C-alpha cells in the first residue's frame, strides 16, 4: 500500500508492494516522498504533476494560482502553513534586530556638509533627498 496524499507533506514512506500510479510503476521497497508543492495546488495543477518530469517547458508559461508571486514559502489554500500569521507578526521585529547588528556610517559628504532635511509637500511628506545607507 502506498499513500499518495499524506497528512504531513514531505514525509517519506516505503512502498510495501509494487504499485502503478498514473502509468508510472513504483517498485516494492522504494522510498516515496510525496511532492509537497502540489498538495496545495488547485485541481487543474494536480492533473499536470506527471508532465513535469517529461517536459518542464510546459510549466513555464502556464496559469498559476498566484501569478504575482514567484515563491509562496508558506503554501496556500487548504494546506496553508499554521506559522504564517506568527511570521507575519514577527517579521518586523526580526528585520529590525538584524539591521540593528550592523555598524552604520554616514557618507563622507553628509558628514562634512550635514544631512539635508528638506521635505517635499504633498499628501504625505517625503524627504527631498533620499537617504543612503552604508554598512
TrEMBL record:
Belongs to the cytochrome P450 family. It comes from Oryza punctata. GO terms for molecular function: heme binding; iron ion binding; monooxygenase activity; oxidoreductase activity, acting on paired donors, with incorporation or reduction of molecular oxygen. The keyword Acyltransferase does not apply. Pfam families: p450 (PF00067). This is Cytochrome P450. Keywords: Heme, Iron, Metal-binding, Monooxygenase, Oxidoreductase. It comes from the Eukaryota.
Amino acid at each position: 500500500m502506498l499513500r499518495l496524499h499524506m497528512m504531513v507533506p514531505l514525509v517519506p514512506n516505503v512502498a510495501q508492494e509494487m504499485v502503478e500510479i498514473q502509468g508510472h510503476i513504483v517498485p516494492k521497497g522504494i522510498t516515496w516522498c510525496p511532492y509537497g508543492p502540489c498538495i496545495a495546488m488547485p485541481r487543474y495543477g494536480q492533473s499536470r504533476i506527471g508532465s513535469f518530469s517529461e517536459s518542464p517547458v510546459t510549466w513555464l508559461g502556464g496559469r498559476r494560482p498566484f501569478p504575482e508571486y514567484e515563491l509562496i514559502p508558506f503554501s496556500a489554500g487548504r494546506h496553508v502553513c499554521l506559522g504564517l500569521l506568527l511570521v507575519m507578526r514577527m517579521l518586523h521585529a526580526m528585520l529590525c534586530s538584524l539591521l540593528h547588528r550592523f555598524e552604520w556610517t554616514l557618507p563622507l559628504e553628509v558628514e562634512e556638509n550635514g544631512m539635508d532635511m528638506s521635505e517635499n509637500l504633498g499628501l504625505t511628506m517625503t524627504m527631498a533627498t533620499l537617504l543612503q545607507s552604508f554598512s
